[in-house]
Inverse folding.
């Protein structure tokens, strides 16, 4: 019931009394509900917004100097707080995005939760995230997973600080009251620093899987998606496009989706992750989507138009696209973007499409 | 990160300045977040609560006298507003429940939306809900579906008023910004009053389906689940239990789930519906569930203990069980209950289970 | 490699020697294989054929006089032996069909096997098939299931004989070497004669299922699909067609599929079953199918054209449609037909469609 | 109904006449069927057998001299003819295996069929298989796919001959009458010789997929599984095992399954493919399987015991394990084996398991 109801009863003492009785009985009359309740199309409170890497990183560094990391606070993370969401540390109505920062030699203690998480590395290296005992190196361009229910902590094995993007489904699991949390070891259980995680050694072979183990897992068992593979896949798509062959999203637009190798579907039950590469001068105007997304510029620069506003964006900048907001991207120079969204939630619940066209 | 963080930096001017800069950049530091963010177990704002049919119905009747129903207001419905949810017309964090009331000869105009809906009839008859042009009679004990994207309106073809329960996923679709709404015909398109809907004529034959049409539909194509079938199924389960045969939930507890005959799964992508019958003196103490439910007593009486509180409940009373709240039911006399929940949301997104036990 | 290979080497002593050496090493050269190996389209050895009920029943009766039924022989069943299959007791390459006959008071002892089975009753009543201890009455028009791995036996509780159709996937399970068989009790474990089986009491409620038990079962847990429901569904479809509403296969052609209520899919992993009703004068010319089917006329009469041949068929007559054979049915009077096929095998293995059209 | 029926009627003139009438009406009485019909456990006609690479290759070479390859004969392939299958060119009841041989500069013309196919390269290189216009290099250790319905031909771009293993589901598609075949171009449409196929350029990136295209495909879109990846995966599994970590089949036994990256399931709807590595002295005694398999030794040597017989096997030797036959493998030196089976057929049709244990 969107917009201003037209048939409202005339005010009267009786009506006022009735409304008081409603309130007393914990009832809300539908006919006075504002258009918020069931709008003509998604009307997210979250708004389009851009966070500048050039501002985030210095703040993270200052936090590194002033704020210790340890049990209780758990993580030195700065959450993007969408201006439309009243100060909540949520990037969109369903997605959490934060910059996490770990100084030389620091550790973020182990814990686990039902919330699904990943990390994406915009720059730097030297931190290992330890997932159920498996140390996973974090390097520029990598996507690292911590599916729900896995213990995890991080440690910086170098003498340089490192910052990265954390993505989680915290707002969503909070909205559906499904979050469980548990502390783990205060000190990282395995501080070894292998170049490849055990998970990759088992799962990062194209088209192959161990012959044992469950046929399907709800989240990807592959803990790390390395930049060298992502970059190669994007490069090949554009080369194929140049040869007139299919595979890319367009002649100047390559895009890969990160998948769960046991199902071919999304990496996490609630989160889709993709990487896009637009050639210089290329534009991308996707269909409007039900559901929200967060983008981070990995390299290059261009313009992001979201709804009515446009922003010039470059390396490290983050922007959010609320549900049903129009988006267009234009690359000034070759533009690489990481993107994550809540698409699996909408698709699995048959909510990813708008109303069908009316048949006359 | 639940409970009181232990390692907080000492207050200082530098820190205060840093926090101001965070706020300026729309950032929220994780380490100051309250335990709300990631609690040890679901900590729903929704609370256990009971609404009394004996109070609801008179209020609906008074609304019937004072408030017209028509385009704009759309429905004369009184939504249960959970006391924990700040006045929002939501029964739980994901579920909408309302009493709808239609006087003699009245019509609620047609519209459609992506939100999924059903009606459950606690008493009375005489209203037809018209779903995409198919008039569906509503009678005591019936469950009637209006899956998302179907046009629907209601009309009362008798000279007696009728009230019933509406269930929807409005809070959930709002939380994920997936709601679309569209007006339809102002007057009901088909005011005929057949005893059986077209949908039932096609689909209400046990184990049979038309040989044509899509193999699977996201929501049930069966618009009406009639009380005579529900009652028979419950009766048979208890009779089988008396014969020492399996099928019932317990020796004194029958339970059926309403299904989508094209998949065998839940009736709607976001809502599960069940009917329970407890014999006099029987108790039911289910495992705690992730996700919330609304129950309505159909007949009989007993006690519902939710969390720390207990209520005596009888015919028509509604109560909500927030996520992870403990529930126990005790039947004073034979107790029939209708129940709906958000279980499909949690299950499809792998959020229906808590953290596994720790392996020592 | 269909039809006559064009490039064959000239005969020579060397070639003859080579072929001898092939044979010695258990090798067969592909280039001499006849067109049978990979024909342009399915070239089943099974041929269209009709078996007359008027001939089958007297033979079954004579067998009833001369041949006892008991452990070892297990069943007094006469299998349809497709004339193209060299005397094998197979109706088609994948399907078994037989007339089973049980005299007054007789019992067919219990056994179980991985092969999936059903019974369809063309006439009579009085036999109970006991499936894992659940006695299931058999009556005219009923479809009764014995999914693989369930113990089952039959007993005739009356003083009249009874004959019916057995359908199994024996040829298929033999072809893939997947058959296991085990004897059960020599005497029927439960000779009670309830009108409704336990299975129906639990599962034959439209759109309902017990709230407990596995979400999905590979075969239907509903042991009996009663004629009254099948007939009602067909009657409704034609009535809807008369009202200009969708659901039937055509204006004069109703068709239902029997389903597994836990999945909405086929009753058995390897067998699809349907019931068709053609009004007098109606014709049905389905698309050619990959996979074979057996039809039995339940009532009425008409003409079945299969491939190049046409047969006049009436009550009880059985006919087979081999893979990719053309079929057309014409009803002289209202014509009711039961049909089963191997469609699930082909569909689950992506073999149900021919080659796509060539893109020029 | 296995083994000798015990209750047979005494011979008589009446019975003889009845049997004649059965035959006349194309009926076979079940009670006289031999134990073949429904044996206690799978009783495949296919028998364990070994084909020696040392014998196959010279025969293929001789065929190369005497037999041209071209339209009509289509392929210079020598099919393994299981000694139990009466001279049919079938390795098992469901699987085809053949050695194909292509001389310098030769071409095998293009065609397509619904039968699914793959190639596995035991040695050599220099042939490109062109799948729907995509040239795919074949090199030692590679697995190359030609899923059903794709045009394909082969050409040898070098001046050395090449032989490899072809695997298909021809016996199965014949058994279910689902084969369609069509000629394509007589000359290979693209004789370029890229090191990587277009398919690999799109799909051979671990955990990544193009963001466009169908969510799921019935067969793998990845045309080549390269030895370097298979070898690396096996090597890592054994290294993990040495570190006491899970993933391998056993401490001395690594095994990978080739998968369809769009589903995580088997490469082809009807065929499973795996690669096994046994360390010197290791043994492997798998559970007996319903369904058949073909193994080829890739390198190393050892002993294969199948049923009652044992064979010493080494590089290139092929052996078949019929359904339900016992298998044990013992490695004399490190033993690498390629294996393909019909497991997807059995699993998708719920036929992969024997009868459950009896509950007493």
């Amino acid at each position: 019931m969107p917009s201003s109801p037209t048939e409202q009863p005339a005010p009267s003492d009786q009506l006022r009394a009735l409304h008081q009785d409603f309130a007393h009985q914990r009832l809300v009359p539908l006919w006075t509900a504002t258009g918020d309740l069931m709008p003509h199309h998604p009307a997210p409170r979250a708004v389009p917004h851009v966070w500048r890497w050039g501002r985030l990183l210095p703040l993270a560094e200052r936090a590194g100097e002033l704020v210790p990391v340890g049990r209780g606070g758990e993580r030195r993370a700065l959450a993007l707080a969408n201006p439309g969401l009243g100060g909540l540390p949520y990037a969109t109505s369903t997605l959490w995005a934060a910059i996490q920062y770990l100084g030389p030699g620091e550790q973020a203690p182990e814990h686990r939760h039902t919330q699904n998480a990943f990390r994406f590395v915009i720059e730097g290296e030297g931190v290992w995230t330890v997932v159920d005992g498996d140390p996973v190196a974090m390097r520029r361009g990598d996507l690292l997973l911590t599916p729900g229910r896995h213990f995890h902590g991080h440690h910086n094995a170098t003498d340089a600080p490192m910052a990265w993007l954390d993505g989680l489904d915290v707002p969503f699991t909070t909205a559906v009251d499904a979050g469980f949390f548990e502390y783990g070891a205060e000190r990282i259980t395995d501080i070894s620093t292998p170049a490849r995680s055990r998970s990759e050694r088992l799962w990062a072979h194209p088209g192959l899987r161990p012959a044992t183990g469950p046929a399907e897992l709800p989240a990807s068992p592959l803990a790390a998606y390395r930049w060298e593979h992502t970059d190669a896949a994007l490069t090949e798509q554009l080369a194929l496009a140049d040869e007139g062959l299919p595979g890319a999203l367009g002649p100047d637009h390559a895009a890969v989706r990160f998948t769960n190798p046991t199902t071919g579907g999304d990496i996490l039950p609630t989160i889709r992750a993709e990487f896009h590469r637009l050639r210089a001068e290329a534009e991308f105007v996707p269909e409007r989507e039900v559901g929200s997304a967060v983008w981070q510029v990995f390299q290059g620069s261009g313009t992001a138009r979201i709804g009515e506003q446009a922003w010039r964006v470059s390396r490290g900048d983050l922007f959010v696209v609320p549900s049903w907001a129009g988006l267009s991207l234009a690359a000034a120079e070759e533009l690489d973007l990481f993107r994550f969204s809540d698409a699996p939630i909408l698709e699995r619940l048959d909510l990813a499409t708008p109303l069908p066209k009316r048949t006359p």
Q: What stands out?
A: The interface with chain D takes residues 198, 201-213, 215-216, 220, 222, 225, 229-230, 232-233, 236-237, 239-240, 245, 247-249, 255-265, 267, 274, 276 of chain A (CB under 8 Å). Chain A has a mean pLDDT of 95. Residues 259 and 266 of chain A are 5 Å apart (CA to CA). Chain A has one domain: 49-202+219-348.
